[in-house]
Amino acid sequence: LGMRKSSPLRFALSSILHGPLCPPLNPKNVVIVSKVTRLEREHLSTNFNQQDLATHLSLRGIDVQKLQQSHNTHKSSLNEITTSLQQENISFRVISIADVQQSDLINSDLVIAAGGDGTLLRAASNLLDSKIPILGVNTDPTRSAGVLCPIVFDRINNKQNQFSILLDKLRNGSYSLNYRRRLRVRIEQSEGQITTLPNLVLNEVFFAEKDAARVSLFSLSVDDEPSDIVRSSGVIICSGTGSTAWFSSTAQTHVDTVKLILDLAGVKNTSPENVDKITIQLNDRLKYNFDEKKVGYVVREPITNRAINCNHRLGIAQKITLRSLGWNGMLTIDGITQIPLGFGSRVFIDPADDSQMLACINN
Q1: What letter does residue 153 receive in the DSSP assignment?
Q2: Residue 190: what pLDDT?
Q3: Among the four 64, 106, 207, 209, which has the fewest Cβ within 10 Å?
Q4: Contact 227, 323 (CB under 8 A)
Q5: How far apart, in whole angstroms, are the C-alpha atoms of residue 242 and residue 16?
Q6: What is the 3-state composition of the chain as percent helix, strand, coil, each rounded to the nearest 5?
Q7: Please, which pLDDT band fits residue 269 given cuts at 50, 70 and 90?
Q8: What does the alpha-carbon distance between residue 80 and residue 87 come to, in Å, rounded to a whole number?
Q9: Cα separations (Å) of 232 from 218, 247, 341?
Q10: Average pLDDT, stretch 131-147?
Q11: What is the average pLDDT across 56-74?
Q12: Partners of 188 in the beta sheet?
């Protein structure tokens, strides 16, 4: 496979000099990581038959018809993927998102995440080899925005053979690759031993007390600067990919705040359009490219008073170090993996190497 002999640098130079050209991709061994639909989760958790489950869900105020429709839409999309692969005599396996492991993806030459962004994040956390590309397919765009899933099946116009057309594009090299930088996480427990987590971070790391209603207490160091003792609702640390996700929602300045500041500064007769423009410029400064070796951070709702301050609430850095100063801290990676952190545990977060970037196929 030509892609295995290439590198992120080669593709970057190719994009600059010639546009997003990629070598022909002729997958022989495909792994499809499929989401578990809400209906399937309800079946697994209750073990009811179909009629009893419908009654049970209705009593909980859940629209069973919409749940079934979403389930059917996902299964229809998944069936189109597998049928297209069968017609092309391409070997494949379908693995549930609940069961996928790193060993399932090692010998593949293409990973397809069939679901939404959550499915791709789970698949990506088990895919450590940048030579194996991943393709995100949004199987139900009515229920998922699927920002990381560029392939969306058109069910409204009942278009046929959409995935077969995509396979032709891959074979012809008519696609592009986004190499997304991921973050490496190392943990030093109170005994002093440092462990590198096997899971790489595509979006963000979140640290806070396990009990969301309790104040999170930790020290935070940005680029080896002196640590701050922080009391807050936790801290989000993100990659370039994650800088447009939860981090962006938490860090953004709202338009009403900008309007209030302009009024207090004595700026008169500012049009709503200009206020919107200023707000967008203010928030865009915290977004950066998905391949950059940077780490974004934002402390949520820091407590500040005469005794406590938060000198590093928000910004972009090269690395972050935090130490848990509470007894029930929890580190959450991409909303998937949770790691308890006791008092004194330290976490080191920095960009991973080029060899650990995620190769995402972009249609």
Answers
A1: -
A2: 67
A3: 106
A4: yes
A5: 24
A6: 30, 25, 40
A7: confident
A8: 11
A9: 9, 15, 16
A10: 89
A11: 90
A12: 194, 346
Determine the Cα–Cα distance for residues 106 and 133; give it in Å rounded to an integer.
Answer: 12
Dist CA 269 CA 347 (whole Å): 48
DSSP for 174-218 reads: --EEEEE--EEEEEE-TTS-EEE-SSPBSSEEEEEESSTTSPEEE
What distance in Å separates the CA atoms of residue 273 and residue 52, rounded to the nearest whole number?
54
Render pLDDT for 8-40 as a digit per residue (tens, 0 to 9): 444 443 443 334 468 899 999 999 999 999 988
The strands making up 204-209's β-sheet, listed across from edge to edge, are 314-317, 295-299, 235-238, 204-209, 329-333, 337-341
Compute the distance between CA of residue 221 and CA of residue 303 in angstroms, rounded to an integer.
17
Q: What is the pTM of this model?
A: 0.86
The CA dihedral of 29, 180, 242, 163, to the nearest 10 degrees, is -40
* 139 touches 78 (CB < 8 A): yes
**pLDDT for the residue numbered 98:** 92
- Tell me the β-bridge partners of 259: none
Do residues 35 and 74 make contact, with C-beta atoms less than 8 angstroms apart?
A: yes
What gap in Å lies between CA 14 and CA 18, rounded to an integer? 5
- Provide the 3-class DSSP secondary structure of residue 125: helix
**One-letter amino acid of 128:** L
In this structure, the chain runs to a length of: 363
Which of 143, 139, 326, 346 has the alpha carbon at shortest distance from 231? 326
Average pLDDT, the chain: 89
Cβ-defined contacts of 132-136 (< 8 Å, 24+): 132/105, 132/108, 132/359, 133/3, 133/25, 133/177, 133/359, 133/360, 133/361, 134/110, 134/358, 134/359, 134/360, 134/361, 135/110, 135/111, 135/360, 135/361, 136/360, 136/361
Q: Which of 290, 101, 111, 116 is CA-nearest to residue 199?
A: 101
What pLDDT does 47 receive? Answer: 82
